[in-house]
């Protein structure tokens, strides 16, 4: 497959390497000339059968491609879309941005002014580690076993979706079918909210050096992601503000209830029922995988799979079935 | 030194082993007969020069001791104090409970009815890992480099305090001098609050299997301590309710402000200044240690040391000076 990767940070760079290793013909582009130079040097040093090429414009990368992957942060998406429209790109389009509703809306707005309609857009989001960033941290094995959301909306062309799902499962990832809105509400819970809590917790040791000295494991883990750059956290959380706000309120209500229990007559007892549901949820996470099964490759079947926490690990060559896994039910 | 350890869970068991290895004569007791049997078997298998003995009553353990270490959870403290009073124990007393004000008050109440006044009580708290629990997880090296609070109140006998500080630094721990009240306010921030946040966060994936499947690193680390037993978390948080409540309110106010920013015109920008202080606090934690210095072993000097996040790593044989470390100032 001829694929263009626009944006060569951790995710884009890792995709460039992973797709080239899988035998695809890959062109990469990054807006930063230094990143392009680094990626060109790395290409020359890579194995002969897994090389990529770096172009100097979005247009040059997209020209020959039948799939364009946008691997840029949300604020850079509109500019890339404009360049794709100007280049007359008409192939398949996906992205890896951590919010999906806003990208879907941007795609809709920007492509409406295009003379040539796009083959299709399928929003994507690999839940891949972000401890280090930039092309230097790129790793072709980053996506092994990672959950990779592919948005399956009512308007999505199912064969486009299956084409991408086939490509992404071939990289070792677990493809999770869901909608942009369901994705955004879910990541508000498990990715964006944890960042706000980590930052609020970290701030409690400011002006309290004694607390900083006594802090150990629970503080270390509870605040780890506060070490991410504030601009990145703001882009993630702010870009998903509509979904994050009600989840934040849910947690504020829960903590408010805990505060009342702290004032009850015997908080050492009264807190226990407040603690148990969260404790049980964490103790049964991650849910073990059930057996793999073959399912018909139909939109409604795949939508139900995502909603119960399932994923697919392969797409049949004839695109009629997928191999799926559901979380095992607790006994 | 003749030492009795009452309670042989992770902390008590580790102290038993560490003190025996350091050449002290150690007697251990646990209310659970099975734990006593396990500890007796382990004693028989330990090296000849680092053995301990297990007694069948608190009285037998305390009889010969000049130091008793209470290593039981807060709810069990009153019972142990009663037994020590009944046994006529008059030596030095310390504990390892995670809240210090309530234990101080219990000691005051229970010993007031004793005919023989105690030599002295010094509250203690090792900030040591709790991933696993019970005597089976006991490790004589658990306290290496760990911060170990020893409460230094206006009423504390300084020579008792220095005696304990000398013993504990000899186990490789960093002794942090502070008061029970300052300790309780600090651990509310860095230990008890993280547990409440972890549990509230973990609860957000209940009834959302999609979120559970997408959850990765930030959820895993942010919820880790929610895996602790609800009864243990309730005992910690409920036992420190008075100090925890205002810290919880502080975080609720901060998160409430973040919620308002999510509703602002451009949350991707307006969140940045909210995020920066917590980010900076986490990025500079743990503060690197400065050079070690000798300080006079005086209560006011030690109190100031703890308040700026410092600790002591040794006590001179003549008890006139301590070797202290302050956190290095950032450049």
UniProtKB/TrEMBL annotation, chains A, B:
Q: Name the enzyme's class.
A: oxidoreductase
Return the Gene3D superfamilies for the record: 6-phosphogluconate dehydrogenase C-terminal like domain, NAD(P)-binding Rossmann-like Domain
Tell me one GO biological process term. tyrosine biosynthetic process
Q: Which UniProt keywords apply?
A: Oxidoreductase
Q: Which InterPro entries match?
A: 6-PGluconate_DH-like_C_sf, NAD(P)-bd_dom_sf, PDH_C, PDH_N, Preph/Arog_dehydrog, Prephen_DH
Give EC number(s), comma-separated.
Answer: 1.3.1.12
What family does this belong to? Belongs to the prephenate/arogenate dehydrogenase family.
What's this protein's name? Answer: Prephenate dehydrogenase
């Amino acid at each position: 497959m001829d694929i263009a990767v626009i944006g060569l940070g951790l995710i884009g760079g890792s995709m460039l390497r992973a797709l080239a290793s899988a035998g695809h013909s890959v062109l990469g582009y990054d807006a930063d000339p230094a990143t392009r130079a680094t990626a060109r040097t790395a290409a020359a040093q890579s194995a002969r059968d897994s090389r990529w090429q770096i172009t100097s414009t979005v247009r040059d990368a997209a020209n020959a491609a039948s799939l364009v992957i946008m691997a840029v942060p949300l604020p850079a998406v509109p500019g890339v879309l404009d360049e794709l429209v100007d280049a007359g790109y008409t192939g398949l389009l996906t992205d890896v941005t951590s919010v999906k509703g806003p990208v879907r809306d941007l795609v809709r707005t920007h492509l409406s002014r295009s003379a040539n309609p796009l083959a299709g857009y399928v929003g994507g989001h690999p839940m891949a580690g972000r401890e280090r960033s930039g092309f230097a941290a790129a790793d072709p094995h980053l996506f092994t076993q990672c959950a990779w959301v592919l948005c399956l909306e009512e308007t999505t062309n199912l064969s486009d979706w299956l084409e991408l799902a086939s490509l992404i499962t071939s990289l070792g990832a677990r493809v999770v079918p869901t909608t942009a809105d369901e994705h955004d509400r879910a990541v508000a819970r498990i990715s964006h909210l944890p960042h706000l809590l980590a930052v609020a917790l970290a701030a409690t040791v400011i002006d309290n050096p004694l607390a900083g000295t006594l802090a150990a494991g629970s503080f270390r883990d509870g605040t780890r992601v506060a070490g991410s750059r504030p601009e990145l956290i703001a882009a993630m959380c702010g870009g998903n503000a509509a979904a994050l706000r009600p989840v934040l309120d849910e947690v504020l209500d829960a903590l408010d209830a805990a505060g009342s229990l702290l004032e009850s007559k015997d908080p050492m007892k009264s807190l226990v029922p407040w603690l148990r549901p969260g404790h049980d949820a964490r103790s049964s996470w991650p849910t073990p995988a059930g057996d793999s099964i073959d399912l018909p490759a139909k939109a409604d079947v795949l939508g139900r799979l995502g909603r119960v926490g399932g994923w697919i690990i392969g797409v049949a060559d004839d695109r009629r079935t997928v191999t799926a896994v559901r979380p095992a039910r607790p006994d």
